[in-house]
Description:
Blueprint: H1 8-23, H2 27-33, H3 41-47, E1 50-52, H4 62-81, H5 88-102, E2 110-112, H6 117-127, H7 160-167, E3 186-191, E4 194-199, H8 204-224, E5 259-263, H9 273-287, E6 291-297, E7 304-308, E8 312-317, E9 321-323, E10 326-327, H10 335-344, E11 349-353, H11 358-369, E12 373-378, H12 387-399, E13 405-408, H13 411-421, E14 428-430, E15 452-457, H14 466-479, E16 483-488, H15 494-504, E17 510-514, H16 518-525, E18 530-533, H17 542-549, E19 553-557, E20 571-574, H18 578-593, H19 600-610, H20 613-627, H21 635-643, H22 649-667
Parallel strand pairs: 5-6, 5-11, 6-8, 11-12, 12-13, 13-14, 15-16, 15-18, 16-17, 18-19, 19-20
Antiparallel strand pairs: 1-2, 3-4, 7-8, 9-10
Amino acid sequence: MANSKACPEFNRQKSIKVHMAEKCVSYAEANKEIPTSYKSYSEVSKENIKLLPRYNLNNVTSETWEQFSNKVDTKLLQLLSNDALIDAPVFTDVLIESANEIFPVKNEPSHIPSPPCSIANDFLDKLAPPTVNININLLDKNSIADEHDESPGLNSSFSKTELKNVLSYVSDSAPGPDDLAIDKNVDVLQYADDLLLYIKGNNIDDASSKLTESLCYLKRWLDNHGLDLSPSKSSVVLFHRMRRAPLLQEPARNKKRHVVCMASDFFYPNTGGVEEHIYNLSQCLIKRGHKVVVITHCYGDRVGVRYLTGGLKVYYLPIRVFYSQCALPTMICNIAIVRYILIRECIEIVHGHSAFSVLAHEVSIIGKLMGLKTVFTDHSLFGFADMSAVLTNKYLQMCLCECDHCICVSHTGKENTVLRAKVQAHKVSVIPNAVDAYTFTPDPSQRDPNVITIVIVSRLVYRKGVDLMAAVIAEMCPRYPNVRFIVGGDGPKMWLLQEVREQKGFQHCVTLLGSLKHCEVRDVLVKGDIFLNTSLTEAYCMAIVEAASCGLKVVSTKVGGIPEVLPESMIYLTEPNVTSIVAGIELAIKDLKENKILCPYECNKRVRKMYNWMDIARRTEIVYNRILLNKNKSLGQQLKTYLSCGVWPFLLVISLIYLLLQLAEKVYKRKHIDIARDLKL
């Protein structure tokens, strides 16, 4: 009762605090000076019972209901004009006063200890913005009957249908925080600076997913208004119907905790699709209870051990870059340090990324000879005709001979990997990339309504179709004066775009932003109406997913795994030639002018459902569980497998690596290596 203002103890405690502030005395001294009020709960309850009349509604006409509605409307508007706080009890008082003036009263009174919950619910639902559903339960919802007030035990003076008619005058477009776009299935209640989100779900995973989605929207709304949540003052409460509370996470005895080493030459601070994939996958695996460390080469002065968000541990090895951010493929020079890290971190699974990464293949081979399980994720497509493709494919075939499982980001990528690396199809799974749709959110207010803006964000290299890009810009700008191009990214082909812009005089319609940080990509995308991708080969284009998440219409070449990424309603597929790309852009411009486009927020919602990093982590976890069942092979069996690739000298390399590992064991025994402690945040 001390939380109720009707309780005498509430007023006493308030008086004690005022007395302490005014007299500068302690609580014990103020408690003695202000005596305790001795009243029972029943006495206080009787004092606050309202005696409400019961009305005779048998002969009420529609004109009478209209008079009643207008009377209530006038009183509420008067209270609102005086900045009064309209809560459920105040609204009930307004109803009683208006009903006393309009309706005839029955002889028998009715005691109601507090206002009916349907009155407060209906009224506050109307005052809330259309995208937020507010519920305040003052009584049990079962206390409101659907029939008239002759029903026994009825607390309300009106039926539900009549109450809805009374409240129909309140406009659905009442003022409120309309930009707080929380799902209608989530109930929101605010009092001063306190906020309550109430989520109903069929199971814990369903409710947790809805809560996470709501919190992401809420955080963005708070950031836009200069506000923030306090983690120390926030909590999650679980209501359930079971005798024992269900666990929010799977029990440890039913869930295997993996210790995974991500190995690749491509990682932060370098930016790209592989780097983002490794980082996001690692973060989600850590959230699911696994331990993840990353091995990569040094970047400038960044050498040694670094900790990233969520306790992700990264080893930047002192290895010099040979070409295009890749280390020199020596195969034996890094054996000692890689072995030390794998033992120190108690690694069970080595997960390599990218066929271009020499370090990923070296760590995988060393880990396999040490008896660890290996997984490889291929992010690219390769041809079969040119010399570089032949050499890369043979090198990939040799390195993947003993790999326990391979992951490709598209079905086209799987077919390509099976053919060029000669991996058995049952050992290859398709797990796509994903995008953080809560970061890449639409913002139509950033677009220029007077022009049509085409955004290009890509590495400016040959395989990204920069030659096609330059030709398309040269043809579109003279034909459509109201079209603007924004190009983000850098690379060896930047000179070509600069040359086209200078020679054609397109400085007013072509903007070259240069290299972009990943956190800046979203701010560039939201300025555009159309996103253009001119790749010549692509296993999975993450850029078009990020653009679609920001609500842009996507025009892309139909190569590699791109047709698998987005549905037809969200992308215009073209052939990799100038004529077809220009036709696709013109079709997108026509649909924009005729408003035949999806709502940007609907696009974001679809991307959230299609691609989610937690789902990618869950599917990768299934692969980890499966390969742990594989039996380790002896050195002779491994050499026999490597022999199947047809390169005899490679057996000497594997044998030399094995001998150096045995030598390292003699010089620096496993038992003398300190085991790293797990960082718990």
